[in-house]
Amino acid sequence: MMDSHIHTSGDTICAISTAPGVGGIAVARVSGENAIEVVQRIWRGKPLDKMKSHTAHLGTLLDSHGEPLDQAVITLFLAPASFTGENVVELGVHGSLFVQRELLNALMGAGARLAEHGEFTRRAFVAKKIDLAQAEAVADVIASNSRAAHRIAMNQMRGGYSKKLSMLRDKLLELASLLELELDFSEEEVEFASRQHLLELAQAVHSEVTSLHGSFAHGAALKQGIPVAIVGATNAGKSSLLNALLGDDRAIVSDIHGTTRDVVEDTLEIGDYLFRFMDTAGLRSTTDTIEQIGITRSLKAIANASIVLLVIDPADESVAETYSRVAEEMMQSQAKLITLVNKSDLNPEQKLEFIPQTVTQIAISCVTMQGLDTLRQQLSDTAKEISGNNTADILVTNARHAEILQHATQSSSRIIGGLTAGLSGDFIAQDVRETIHHLGAITGTITTTDILTTIFSRFCIGK
Ligand SMILES: Nc1nc2c(ncn2[C@@H]2O[C@H](COP(=O)(O)OP(=O)(O)OP(=O)(O)O)[C@@H](O)[C@H]2O)c(=O)[nH]1
Ligand SMILES: [Mg+2]
User: Fold this and answer.
1) Ligand 2 mean position, distance from CA 297 (Å)
2) Residue 405: CATH number of its domain
3) Measured from the CB, is residue 280 less than 6 Å from ligand 1?
């Protein structure tokens, strides 16, 4: 079990910061007040305590027995001008697993201890180098696997999101102080700020908080992959399409109707976006219990998708029926429908007349790969369109933030309610304070040790 108690700063921590495994070079980091003395103990080269910040030095590192371990390049970052705000030494060594292990042993022998998950970033937060939302974005940048996800994380890390939250907080503080004034002078029948002005402020905050909260569905989709459901009648070629897109035999393909029973999922980057494809069980009426469960899952996949790919074999007699069924399932959803008329190698260029003009139709073949480039382009365009439709200029991608924002939409809506109902200022001030509190919990102005421990334990060691 992980030690939930984070040691106070002051002690010197060390970790390998590069990916686990063998590499050309591995980088170890050491941070703490005594970082330089600790490294000096295993270092043969220029005296590190005489060197300036932001300088690199070539020398020899010793193992825990005092024997030469490796030639290394050491980079110094002196407090407070470092990532953690403490003295930081980065040691670039050759990336053998043996060298990495021995180096950590030597550092521990010299007085450092192994860092916990995210402890470097946590120290950066404690030193107020970054706020909590930015610290979380560091993890997102490391985990980002598409240009779109990377862009959001970078914006958050550089503080765009925090700035927005702090603007909202300022509006709320203004609201709170105006309410205060109103209370102080309530006896004197002077109106300092009209309730109308207060209402406008509250509405502005509420609408921004609501739009941030609303952006989570899309933000999460961009981060984890935009969900794309591949649906259609049995034998239409859904699993063949998944395999063709992935360039891999991911799902079982056969000419037996009802081959796919469960949802088969995989992600793929197309253009700037990561997509999460879900191959589903073919839609047909069946008495087979297991197949029926599979079909229920297909319908659920439609409900959860941002894009639905309806695969059609034009030779199939029930095509119109399948189309209506899917269209009906999609009535409630915001998802985009794209129909794929498959097996074009057998049935050259067919356009299905019963499908409305507004719905995109692409002729494809999973055998000749015809039309797949058009499909990839269409997917990337659709993803861009979905992103463009989002009114928030900042996307929330973090579930913790989304939950807090949900509370903030409720408390800010109560402020509006209170103002509209003409309630006394002290009742309303309560909800204003609560909203400020919620926003503060995102950036970390208000946090508990438990929350911090949960957040940073999800980081890699060495970050
Ligand atoms: N000629 C031709 N055959 C195809 C094409 N796409 C799929 N098939 C064949 O159609 C049959 C069904 O393909 P699958 O991909 O298993 O169909 P599915 O829609 O996943 O079927 P279920 O899992 O049963 O719902 C297989 O024999 C495939 O080889 C195509 O573009 N052209
Ligand atoms: Mg299948």
Assistant:
1) 13
2) 1.20.120.430
3) no
* The total number of structural domains that make up the chain: 3
Q: Of the ligands numbered here, which is closest to the C-alpha atom of 234? A: 1
Residues 353 and 241 in one domain: yes
The residues, ordered by sequence, that sit 6+ positions from 152 with a Cβ below 8 Å of its Cβ are: 140, 219, 222, 223, 395, 397
Average confidence (pLDDT) over 430-445 = 90
User: Which residue out of 253, 285, 299 has the highest number of ligand 1 atoms within 8 Å of its CB and is therefore the one to mutate?
Assistant: 253
How many angstroms separate the CA atoms of 422 and 315, rounded?
Answer: 67
| Spatial contact of 230 and 275, defined as CB atoms under 8 Å apart | no
Segments forming the whole domain that contains residue 105: 13-131
- CA–CA dist 198, 176 (Å, integer): 9
Q: pLDDT tens-digit profile of 18-36? A: 988 888 999 999 999 999 9
The tokens describing 380, both together, are 């990337």
Supply the pTM of this predicted model: 0.69
Which of 354, 246, 373 lies closest to 363, judged by CA? 373
At a CB cut-off of 8 Å and minimum separation 6, what does 90 contact? 17, 27, 28, 29, 30, 74, 75, 77
Pocket test for ligand 1, best of 230, 234, 235, 298 (most atoms within 8 A of CB): 235
Is residue 316 located within the same domain as residue 231? yes
Cα–Cα nearest to 455, from 9, 144, 6: 6
Query: What's the 232 CA to ligand 1 centre distance in angstroms?
Result: 11
Per residue in 311-346, pLDDT (tens digit) is 999 999 999 999 999 999 999 888 999 999 999 999
